[in-house]
Amino acid sequence: MRLLAVYPFRTTPLKKFLAIFIPITLLKLARLANLIVYLVSFYNELMTGEQILSRVQELCSTRFPNYTVEFPLQVVDNTATSVLFLVKLNEVRAFRSTVRGWSEYISFISRGLLTRFGQVP
Hints:
Blueprint (H helix, E strand, L loop, with lengths): L1 H5 L7 H35 L3 H12 L2 H28 L5 H19 L4
Helix pairs in contact: 2-4, 4-5
């Protein structure tokens, strides 16, 4: 949604709009497909077990590659979206030559990545 705020369809050239939103949409669809596969697999595995609590703990910690797939997709999705947003913000606000502008970029992106790693609340 934040990209649509800075790259609105009516003012962004069609090629640029598609070049921005097709990869982002494909990343989001990959994440959705990964979630669906995870939920179906989790449900099927859960229904075969007798002790639900121990089964859930085992399944969440070891069995599914969902976490391995989801994490890189989420990092790429969030980083690409943040970079595109900040690039447009840089053009609009014209603070690219100031030290403050670059420190805002670095702070924004690193905080987003560290939040994903669980280091920053």
